[in-house]
Amino acid sequence: MTTEDTLDLYGTKVRSRFLLGTARYPSPDHLRRAVERSGAEIVTVSLRRESTGGDKAGHAFWQLVRDLGVKVLPNTAGCHGAREAIKTALMAREVFGTPWIKLEVIGDDATLQPDPFGLVEAARELCAQGFEVFPYMTDDLVLADRLLEAGCKVLMPWGSPIGSGRGLNNPYALGLLRAHVPGVPLIVAPASARRATRRRRWNSATTASCSTPRWRRRAIPRRWPMPSGGRSRPAASASSPASWSSTTSPMPRRRCSARRSRPSQGEAGGPRVVTSSSPARGGARKQGGPESARSEDQETRPVTDLDRFYLIVDRTDWLPRFLPLGLKFVQMRLKDRPEEAVRAEIAEAVALCRAAGCTLVVNDHWQAAIDLGAPWVHLGQEDLVEADVAAIRKYGLKLGISTHSDEELETALSVQPDYVALGPVYETTLKVMPWKPQGLDRVARWKAKIDIPLVGIGGITLERAPGVFAAGADSVAVVSDVLAAASPEARLTQWLGARGTWTRDQARAS
């Protein structure tokens, strides 16, 4: 099915071994540049994305397809059961005018693992109706046989759960699959753009790769060397994608997928289509913001040891002064120090807090937190990119994440944290920040989006705290109002005395 320079997919020959997803781009122009720079000749698009900007975005998508000459591979993302997938595929053929279909039949919401029984049933029916099916499957050899018997001539095994950011977890299993079906093109959905992962992926003798890179802060990479052939690109080997590189940031690693595929306004991929199995929502969310994950009356998912008062200190010396006063939740934020000194302070803080019954949060230094037995870790957005979230979870640590924008909130929620912090709520002099004060309205809006605790931070004083709680915060993080006070111990005592009065109703009444 392949030669050195081309890949044969149901009689269509392509040179690029990279299929590009079209979801979650800020604009059609971003998608256009991504296609141009990646060299992809095939793009995937979901029929079920209902709110992609309406007719205008749909026209832009089709214009992009025509201008770039790429081939569209529709998918049945988000479908549960064979009947739903078949119905979606039939509509996709009418809308996109192609017999190609990437067949997804979801069997488990947490991992988006395919339902093998529903997948085979749908594949058999669609192949009988003339579809050219690209089935998204696990690396199971028996499932591969059943799909080939159903009429499939291409297989799309996963490298890891969609949205998990874990790259290629199963090179051995894929190698077995390659040996089992030597003449069948295998297109791996890798869920990662990490360079090392790409090398391992291709060493497994797979044929091609399907991915949607994560554009850091919505930026298109400055360079992305591409395989030869087709549009203007630097010379490279189409059969050696291991040599590709990009300046995109890697997706944070998760224990499983972020969420099942769902409509999202502001995405670039595809025309607006509403099906009976995916009714349009009553109201579209704001451009660029993550979709609300909670209803009006839904309660926040509790985290039992997150205190209403959250103190942040910059050295262990504070703890012997504060812990005897009844402090219950504290973060160690250690910046610009040698690693050896950081680990020594964290070890001392762990021992002090454990003895006093206080919960310790370690800022940024997640590996030291694991090694030294801290119960919590807090990560900023930049640190989240490099952190091994799976390891943090494996060792039982709870996780908090900083957010300052809609995009950062969506990134934070994708790794299923135990709380998110929003800041700066008010103007702060603690450090120079590129964000303007968020204000109480933003606190309320954040709370309406999430079902986990929300921590307000930045410029919060004891006098301002009731308003922050009234807006929806579950906890307030404080630095300068205590540490810069004339008597830090006295100011901390005031805070600890007031925290028991902070209920949402009382805060609103005040």
Automatic annotation (TrEMBL):
Keywords: Magnesium, Metal-binding, Schiff base, Thiamine biosynthesis, Transferase. It is an enzyme of class 2 (transferase). One of its GO terms (molecular function) is metal ion binding. InterPro entries: Aldolase_TIM, ThiamineP_synth_sf, ThiamineP_synth_TenI, Thiazole_synthase_ThiG, ThiG, TMP_synthase. Residues 195-300 are annotated as: Disordered. Residues 252-262 have a biased composition (Basic residues). Its EC number is 2.5.1.3. Residues 315-482 form the Thiamine phosphate synthase/TenI domain. SUPFAM superfamilies: Thiamin phosphate synthase, ThiG-like. Residues 222-251 have a biased composition (Low complexity). Pathway: Cofactor biosynthesis; thiamine diphosphate biosynthesis; thiamine phosphate from 4-amino-2-methyl-5-diphosphomethylpyrimidine and 4-methyl-5-(2-phosphoethyl)-thiazole: step 1/1. CDD domains: TMP_TenI. The keyword Magnesium applies. GO terms for biological process: thiamine diphosphate biosynthetic process. Residues 9-188 form the Thiazole synthase ThiG domain. Belongs to the thiamine-phosphate synthase family. This is Thiamine-phosphate synthase. It comes from Methylobrevis pamukkalensis.
